[in-house]
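Support request from a user on the community tier.

User writes: "When I paste my structure tokens into the form, the page sometimes reloads and wipes my input. The last time it worked, I copied everything first. Here is what I submitted, just in case something in the input itself triggers the reload:"
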């Protein structure tokens, strides 16, 4: 058995340098320019993945694969592999792996050690039941890189995932860096070097995971088509709060790294979703995960090493860079033909044109994709990964033994809610400012309080428990109400630039604002009387 330690990255295919021959040339030139010793090789690989029809292995977190490898002028070699469950952090995959040479592409399960399998698996019976689920076929370019104290293999794979009798064949277009021997620092250093020339993003899914997804898609496609809802059904986005699933017995000094690891994985899933289907809603979720990550750096500020504070600054940079997405979402809502504003004929064509012009000034999808694959964004994620790896093996970190994590969390939850409550209390007797202005001013404090809840609420109750939901709901209602106020405020700003006064729309906006303030006041009164679930 070996423990595979590798970083996986997907390439941005729309990038002008993304053709396979160009990728190969870039990597070779990059290594040569930095006088890094390497041996290049090209192989043709065919991988076949097996399981029983009821996915016995998959359910037990085991992947069974056979691989046929052919280099030029060589006889094709076959190998069978079992990979068991491991960990994935920021594209870093660590999994136990068992490899055995075989004669052809058909696996012989009994050749593997018996202790790999759970006691409920009958190996002989499984051998009779296994069938091929899917396969992957790709050209692999490898660069075996040698340092004084480490060896790293860079692999560039270009090919496809295939499932029998299914036309859809997702493309494989990715780079893997595997630590062969030595310290993982060499792996991270080489990865940063690739960032300087290639448009990449961390890969959460292995080829096997994508193959299983394709197999599932092929077997469920018919039922999904039959049960697909009509196009005219609109799905309303549920108001919810992202929660970090901190185990209740987590030690205070481990809570920060656990939360960062959890949220970093969520961030990369959101990035993957945006790349697959770009939308302002998904980009907003990318921004949300960045904000949750930064909140962790604020909450655990006194435990940070000086070099870790720079990561917080980088998070702030990217939060500012895509902050425009919320305004873009508001404008999209206003100019949508199905929106209330258009259905009631409140928004004339001239106003729509002005809103569309403002919308056009925001970054395009191609620019967002370039940002999410940029060297700077990748370096931020690799720095977060380095932080996690260093903290896992550093015995000299600052540790606070004066309180437990629960006490620490209670203090932060109490403080953030108290500050917010003081600010919202000003709405009752506004002095010099309108209620609208006061609610908009309180927005940042509300977000901070909700972010603290995202980090710590799991320590006191299950995420979906009535106790937590009852406490959070009025605060989330206030958040939703303030978002609507911001949307209306954006529309109000555009009204003053129209050549002709829009009395009907102005009156509608005034009434809408009044109704929103009434609803916000009711939610505020309820929120301020809720008993904290952590006390």
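"...and here is what came back when it finally went through:"
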């Amino acid at each position: 058995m070996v423990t595979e330690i590798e970083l996986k990255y997907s390439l941005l295919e729309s990038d002008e340098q993304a053709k396979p021959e160009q990728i190969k040339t870039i990597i070779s030139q990059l290594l040569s320019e930095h006088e890094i010793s390497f041996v290049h090789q090209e192989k043709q690989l065919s991988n076949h993945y097996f399981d029983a029809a009821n996915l016995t292995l998959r359910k037990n977190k085991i992947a069974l694969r056979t691989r046929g490898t052919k280099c030029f002028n060589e006889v094709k070699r076959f190998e069978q592999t079992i990979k068991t469950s491991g960990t994935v952090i920021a594209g870093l995959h660590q999994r136990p792996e068992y490899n055995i040479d075989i004669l052809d592409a058909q696996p012989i399960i009994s050749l593997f050690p018996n202790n790999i399998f759970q006691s409920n698996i009958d190996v002989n019976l499984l051998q009779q039941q296994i069938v091929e689920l899917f396969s992957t076929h790709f050209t692999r370019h490898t660069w075996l890189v040698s340092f004084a104290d480490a060896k790293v293999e860079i692999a560039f794979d270009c090919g496809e995932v295939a499932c029998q009798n299914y036309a859809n064949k997702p493309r494989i277009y990715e780079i893997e860096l595997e630590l062969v021997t030595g310290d993982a620092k060499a792996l991270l250093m080489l990865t940063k070097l690739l960032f300087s020339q290639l448009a990449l993003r961390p890969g959460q899914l292995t080829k096997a995971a994508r193959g299983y997804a394709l197999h599932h898609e092929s077997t469920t496609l018919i039922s999904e088509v039959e049960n697909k809802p009509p196009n005219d059904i609109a799905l309303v986005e549920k108001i919810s709060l992202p929660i970090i699933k901190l185990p209740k017995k987590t030690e205070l000094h481990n809570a920060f790294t656990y939360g960062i690891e959890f949220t970093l994985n969520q961030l990369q899933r959101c990035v993957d979703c945006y790349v697959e289907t770009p939308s302002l809603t998904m980009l907003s979720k990318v921004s949300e995960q960045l904000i949750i990550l930064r909140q962790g750096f604020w909450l655990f500020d006194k435990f940070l090493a000086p070099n870790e504070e720079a990561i917080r600054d980088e998070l702030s940079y990217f939060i500012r860079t895509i902050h425009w997405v919320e305004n873009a979402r508001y404008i999209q809502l206003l100019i949508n033909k199905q929106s209330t504003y258009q259905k009631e004929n409140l928004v004339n064509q001239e106003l729509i044109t002005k809103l569309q012009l403002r919308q056009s000034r925001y970054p395009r999808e191609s620019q967002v994709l370039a940002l999410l694959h940029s060297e700077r964004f990748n370096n931020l994620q690799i720095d977060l990964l380095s932080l996690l790896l260093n903290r896992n093996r550093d015995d000299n970190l600052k540790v606070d033994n004066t309180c437990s994590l629960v006490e620490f969390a209670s203090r932060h939850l109490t403080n953030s809610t108290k500050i917010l409550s003081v600010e919202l209390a000003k709405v009752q007797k506004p002095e010099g400012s309108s209620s609208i202005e006061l609610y908009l001013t309180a927005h940042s404090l509300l977000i901070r309080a909700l972010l603290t809840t995202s980090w710590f609420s799991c320590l006191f109750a299950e995420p979906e428990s009535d106790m937590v939901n009852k406490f959070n709901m009025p605060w989330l209602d206030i958040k939703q109400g303030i978002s609507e106020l911001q949307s209306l405020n954006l529309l109000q700003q555009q009204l003053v630039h129209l050549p002709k006064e829009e009395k009907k729309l102005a009156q509608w906006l005034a009434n809408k604002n009044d109704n929103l303030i009434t609803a916000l006041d009711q939610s505020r009164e309820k929120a301020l009387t809720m008993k904290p679930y952590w006390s």
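Agent notes: The reload is a front-end session timeout and is unrelated to the input. Residues 70 and 76 are 5 Å apart (CA to CA). Residues 2-221 form a domain with the Hypothetical Protein Pfu-838710-001 fold (CATH 2.40.320.10). Escalated to web team.
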